[in-house]
Every structure is written in C-alpha cells, then in structure tokens.
User: What shape does this take?
Amino acid sequence: MRHLHTRTTRRRVVGALTAGLLCTAGLAAPVHAAEDAHSAAPAVADGLALTPPMGFNNWNSTHCRAEFNESMVKGIADIFVEKGLKDAGYEYVNLDDCWALPERDANGKLVPDPVRFPNGIKAVADYVHSKGLKFGIYTSAGTKTCSNIGFPGALGHEYSDAQQFADWGVDYLKYDNCNNQGVDAKLRYTTMRDALKATGRPIVYSICEWGQNKPWEWASDVGHLWRTTGDISDTWGSMLSILKQNLPLAQYAGPGHWNDPDMLEVGNGGMTDTEYRSHFSLWSIMAAPLLIGSDLREASDATFEILGNKEVIAVDQDPLGKQGAVVSSEGGRWVVAKEMRDGSRAVALFNETGSAQRVSTTAKAVGLPEAGAYTLRDLWQHKSYNTAGTISATVPAHGTVLVRVAPDPRWAKYPPAVELGLDGSPLVEAGEPAALTSTVTDLGRTSAKRVSVALTGPEGWTVRATSPTTTASLPTGRALRTKWSVTAPSGTPSGSYDLTLKASYRSPAGVRVDSAVPIAVSVVVPPPSGTSALGDVPWLSAANGWGPVERNTSNGESEAGDGNPITIGGVAYAKGLGVHAESAVEYYAGGACETVTADVGVDDEKGANGTVAFEIWTDGTKAASTGVLTNAMPAQPLTADVTGAQLIRLVVTDGGDGIDSDHADWADAQLSC
Assistant: This one.
C-alpha cells in the first residue's frame, strides 16, 4: 500500500492501476454466524502454512537504510535462537525490499547488492538454515519494487526469478503490488504461484496486494496468506484502523490461507507497552501471521516479554485455524472470541477508548456450552481462576485482557475470578476532593473470602476511604463497594494520572490471591467562559493516526510542528486543529458549555487523496457527525449541542478505507461556554 506520509516510508507507486483501497464497512459476524459462513475456496494443498507464519521482516525497523545488511539478518537469526524465539515458534527470517541492485545482469538475473550482501543471498540463507530456521525474500508483481529507487520487479520474469529464489534456498516469498502496469491482479499472482510450484521447492507464498481486489475472495488456492490492508505504521491509529478492516474477514481464514493485517510494530517505539500488548493480543486472536518488525538487536526486555508470550502465541497458532470473530464492540469496548481446537475459547477484552472501561461478556455469548462453572486462564498474568460464566475486566485505556475459557471439571481447584473497578467520574479538579467508589466483584462459582481493598495515588495526593474496605466473604456476583475521597494537590498540572486499585482475597481452600489494576484519572481545569478557539484550549488527551495533533496548523507529517496553514478547498484558516485519522481529541467542559462549531474537511496538503468522517461526542454519546468527506469537497459546517456535558471528544475516522493520506482539519473550531 502506498504510504505517502514521509520520505522514510516506502512509496507505493501503482503505475497504471489507480483504484483506491477497498472500503470495508461493518463488523465481523457474531461467532456462531461466522462459523457457518465460510465461503473461501480450498486452500493450496501443499501442507504449508497450516498455522499462521511466524518470523521476522526488516522493513518496519530499517526500511531501505544501510543497516539492512547481511550482518543484521544473521544477527536476527542468532537472537531467535539465543532469546528463545525459535522455541516459541518464530521460524522465518525474511528480507524485504532493497536487497538487490537496481538492474538485472546481462542474462536477466537478479543481482544481490554486493555492499549489503557481499557473500550473496545463498550464503545468508545457508546461515539461517544452519540455525534450524527458514529464509524469506521479497519482490513485487510489477516492473519495479516499491522503493523509490526502483529495484527490479518480477512481472514478466516470474519463472526465472522463482528459480533463482529456489536455488538460493528461499522458503518464503513476499510478493508486493507496485508498478504493476494495470495487469490483472489475479493473473499476476497466479503466474507467480505457478512459477514457484514449478521450482519443486516448498515456498510459502505471501500475496501483498493490499486488499485492493479482495484477495480473500479468490486467493485461497493461489497463496498461503494475503494482505487485507495497506501498510501498517508504528502508531495507535494505524494499528486500530487495520484491526477494524481485518476483523470482518474472519470467515475467509483457515489452515493454509490466512488474512494478513501486516507485520508487527511491537518494540519500534511509537506505541506504549500497553498498546503493543493489545497489538500482539489482537493479531494473535485474529490468527494473523506474526512477523516481528523491530530490530531485535536493540529490543527491550518488555519487547521480548511481549513477543515471547507462549500462551498468547498458542492462541495464534491453534491448529483449528479459526480467526477470532467480533462478539460486541459497543462504545469502543470490544469482545473478540476465537474457537480453539480443544473446545475452549480465547477471548480478547479490548478497550479502544482513552480511559479505563469495563468490558464484559459471558461464556454463552462466546460460544461455550452451558456448564456449572468454567476455568478462566489469564494469558498475560499466567494465572487460572474459576468463573460462573461471566468474563469481565476493567481494562486500561488502549489495553487488552486476553483469556482462555473452557468448561472444566477441575474448575474448583482454582480461586474465584474477581473483577476490580472504579465507579464515578475520573475527573479531578486540583485542590478539590473528588468522590470515587471502588468495586471488587466475585465472578467465580465459589466465594471469595477475607476480601480487602486499597486505593493509592501519586505522591502528594490524599486518598481516604470513607466506607469499609474489607468483608469476610463475597458470594458469586456480589461486590464490595468502597467509597473514597481523592484530592490532587493544588497546582497539580492538568493531565492523566494513575491511581492503583489493589485487592486481596482467599479462595475457599485458603489460597491468597492479590490483584491490582491501574485506574487513570484526569486532573482538569474548568473551561474558559465565553467563546474560545479549541486550538488554544488545553485538551485532556489527544490520539492521532500519524504524528501528533497540531494546534492551528495542518497535521503535516510525523514530526511535531511540521504542519502548514490549515487549508480546505483553497480556503485558509488561522485557527483550528490539524489531525490524521484515526484521531480523538478530548476536552473537559465541566457541564458549563453549550456548543462546539467547526468547518471540517480534508486538508489540501495531500492533493486529491484522503477520505475521512468527523464526529463530536459528549459523555459517550454521539452529538453530531458528517458522512464520508473527500479532498474534492469544500469545508462542511459542523455544530454540536454540548449542553451539560462533562467531556467533549472530537473524533475523525478513516472513512472505511484505511488511514493513508487522511489529513483532516477542524478549521476554526470553537467552544462556547
């Protein structure tokens, strides 16, 4: 997919093919419907990729830079072995673009770059194989690859190139879509399939045509996996947009034919560890290929902990091969469930929003049979509990709780599952006491005994319980509710701060269980009276699909402060917000404001590209919205009544076709209080 955001990101030049990305609307079918809706053609019957491929690809971390070379590739293979990633299931060490010289030799053969790979590609493949791993390579189904340098593509050279790859010992081919000259996609990708088959070497075939021609409908007997979207980038908005495009395609995935939402960004630095755990959990429950995209030579312990979580990997690699399906998604609180071969269900409780949320479902809703109780295994805590049937957690902002649930005659050996939560507004004015209520709820079939709860805040904060913090016993479904008075010191800057809610209890057998959950609260400043330009008003939080939200300029590119004058349809505006889908900017109104107004549209800085939709939310309710807007449209006026609202959230979505070039403006955005 063409990422036109920045010079360091691959340009996707599609030649004569100018069709945009597929617009995928709606969500995946419920679990039971998805199980009955499988309509894909039979998979390639060669025994390859019976579970989603796992490995490494250099592109997300190096692009075409000089550090992509033989030393790096060998180093990754070494780390796979040394750090236990090979034992966890990672198998393929794959090269992306820029490994070749820009021209073929006199015989039409591809020539490895002698600076990057002085010993040639076969020597690197041999080294990777010597570690018990497999080796992958890249080219494009066009006259040139996707790099703007223009390395040779395989269009018209399929059989020759495939034989070279086989002779080098290639085990995996990523086949891109750039410079394809408008040749039919099915023809281009089928020709390479036949060329690979003709070599006689088993080669996993990754179709990378960005979902433009709905490969999930025709490619299951062509390749082993197919990209469903454009390129991922190392941002929350990009990951979220791709997730939403890939989830509805669950019915098309299975052994030997996988939906591919692109490589992992875990460890590249653009998201938090909480967001990376969500990324890894959600890719795993979607049965997505797990191709590491970070330079493992520089990876943190937290990155290795995420990538090496064998219980999460087991969800991805389950041999039944089901992709998880959406059970519910109301208000950004997602439940995704995946049927496993042993009859259990993997369940992701995912919180898309910017504040902690209770995400809940039941064993029945995720497709499990009725039972007296179930065993619930938390795959990040690596702990087991019993539940009477409720599957629920207070999930941090942008977080995911991933569990595996099964009817189990041994359920009573585990302590009851207990959910921690916090009721009340998470908004605190500095120097003023705020009333909050913590909840400790027994979800188990057995009672929780000797229950106690504690709430702590940052240094200098006053946190005081105003009702009991203990109870002797909590039966199934009952909760200990404790009232608290929380005060941030006067002068505390506005922003988000973490409280920690801790609970301790014992199982009927006397086993002590300690649990804790971070609860984010926001220190807020009352809004100014009168009419204010939102570009000048402090926000509570801001999430953006590419680079930061910009005040009074357009989004620009990935760096802060690199925007241009806000311009929509040739009209320039001095004030406003420059954002990039997926985006959400949240303001505190404190019940004192009446209206939000803005002229909205796609900024002119991306030429003819970009499709977005604008929404204004008040306290979790959509107050105003546009339809899908394109760059060809003039600015649209948007007004919302926000009377009585505590929180106002300005949202920009991607219009259903991915976030590429989605530079959006809240021009002349004003808040009246």
Notes: The two ends are 44 Å apart (CA to CA).
